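ESCALATION

Customer reports they have been waiting on this structure for their group meeting. Please prioritize. Original submission:
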Amino acid sequence: MKITTLGYPRIGKKRELKKANEQFWAGKINEQELQTVASELKAEHWNIQKENLVEQPTSNDFSFYDQVLDLIVDFNCIPKRFQPIHHLSPLQKYFALARGYQDNELNINAMSMTKWFDTNYHYIVPEFYKKTHFKLSESPKAVQEYTEAKAIGIDTKVTLIGPLSFLLLGKEKEQGFHRLELIHQLKEEYIKLLNKLCDLGATEVQFHEPILAKDYNEEINFALKTVYNEFKKRASKINVCVVNFFDCYGDYLPTILQLPLSSLHLDLTRCGEQLKDVLSSQYLNNSLTLSLGVVDGRNIWKNDFKKSLQFISSAIDVVGKERIEISTSCSLLHVPYDLELEESSTKINQSIIPWLSFAKQKLQELKELQEIVESGSIYTHPLFIKNQEIIQSRKDSDQVHHQEVKNRVDTLIDTDALRSSPFKERKEIQKNILQLPLLPTTTIGSFPQTKEVRQQRNLFIKGKITKNEYDTFLKEQIKEAILFQEQIDMDVLVHGEFERNDMVEYFGEQLEGVTFSSFGWVQSYGSRCVKPPIIFGDVSRKKPMTVEWTSYAQSLTNKPVKGMLTGPITILQWSFVRDDQPRKTTCEQISLAIRDEVLDLEAAGIKVIQIDEPALREGLPLRKDAWEEYLTWAVNAFRISSCGVNDATQIHTHMCYSQFNDIIQHIANLDADVITIECSRAQMKLLDAFSDFRYPNEIGPGVYDIHSPNVPSKYDIIDFINKAKRRIPVDQLWVNPDCGLKTRGWKETKAALEVMVEATQKARELFEIAV
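Update from on-call: job pushed to the front of the queue and completed.
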């Protein structure tokens, strides 16, 4: 019985890739130095897999920025707007696609990003036209990595995003066609790639087709049959494995089982019942290898060997041990690197470490499962007994269960999720109190986390400066931020969040039932890495978390300062969540903790409170028949957190990188007084959903892209405001950036916000409406 994987974390043990990328972007290292870091990381990851008995480690799972972007470049479907940067090196062009490009003559918008299914990982969205012509690169990345591994004596299984998923995760940039129409021409380039790999000695390619976890579509099913039968016919020496994760194959399963595949991967952590469907199918042939995804690649809890061995045993009974591979459920991209790094950590709750498993430990779990199965004495094997003792210790722990928190959730009533008056009445009350102009300007919350801010935080954490010294520094930063916002005449101010390391981590550190790793970094996008909270027990708030800093900022100005909070769905979605109770229950616990904070902010005189929920949509189940249940409890959780305030308190929320059309009613059901959304990369098209629906509350479409260092022009922002005005009544509109400004530098931030406010003031004049 073999061990296989679907991908390994690419950032490195200590975020070496992030640091090298940022040094390259800053001009501090050259391309060769960056490539050296990449080569060292790949070699390390291949060797770790070999040490854990993975027969063929995966290649082509590494990426400098994003695996979808890699294919965009390799198949030459680069948007035409990037043609003027032909003078750049290939690597510089690659990064320009993701980050945009600006010089004295050019200002090119970056390609869009969106969430990878229901994860917090962002991918670059391919852009397709009727006449898109795919052309395989002379030196495709998959070929380069396979060759690189072979040069150090490692035979790898090549990982590729499948052609169906590549097309369907993109978007059409012109009307009158569907991107799936491009499948036949794209298929030809994939076949060329397969034959290139075959010529080099590659024996197996693992095609990731997670699009098959979504709702069934007859045209996709037909394309699936056509493409993979053609692969076998015209690249016959390559063994093809199809991989799906995050859900079942659903109605695609009969087609999948009839394809000429060497192996088929099943995510049994998200959809265990599909194994029974496969084993009992009339279409299961006697040569197909089953890759059983029994170790969870999305969460960090130790594998329950009893459950995994039940899956493995039932499969062996039907197809035999030689046709079974055991694997992770999906790529380990979504979990931290190595739990051993936490053994000296003073941050993590050390008593829960035995319950956890990071990427390296997940490989060890596969190795142990293999050993147990091969021993023939499954339930008496020492490794099995030790595993079950740890699983039981977690179930019994008094660190996990707190009856007072459970009782509070159990006694929630309907009115806890209702504002006392409808929006129309609240709007008039808030208008009289806040006295805001037409097109109020604000930001999403965070200001640049400069090197100095990070250094001071690090000094405080290490005990090299006192709390008083650190607090004094933070107050100076807040004072400067408030002064700047007043100077440019911003309408609703923010304190800048200089005290916060991360929008989720900051709150997680102050909640009971939550702990944090010191080195548990996970890639979110590009060089952006986060350390998700670990929710291990019942959640409650110890004490006020933000009131002190927000109140201090408000004391410096007569303009309203927003209280800034992260919402319950986002904390849930961006955390490693306990798997021993329904997510709904955990979310309600978080909602009550945030509700307590909202009420304390209101009592402190804060009149505007923003509860960010950028992750609301990414929590959607992949199949639509499960949406209603999720959206009902998710919306209710937000309302529990926000609805305890008086009518005079204005509640904001923020969402980014989401498609809103199909959940717009549920967004309206949040009943936030103001919602701010990402819009600039989508050229306001996302706003059409709110326009068509006639969204009743106020809305701030992001007028410039904060993920790019480019500074917008005044005329671009006026144009955006005009586009918004054509869709939404002007008295409902706010003006703001797409997202928080934490990752930007002060120079570009100040320049962009000055332009934004100046453009808004000009737009007010153009509308000829008295402010």
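Sent to customer with the following note: The radius of gyration is 26 Å.
Escalation resolved.
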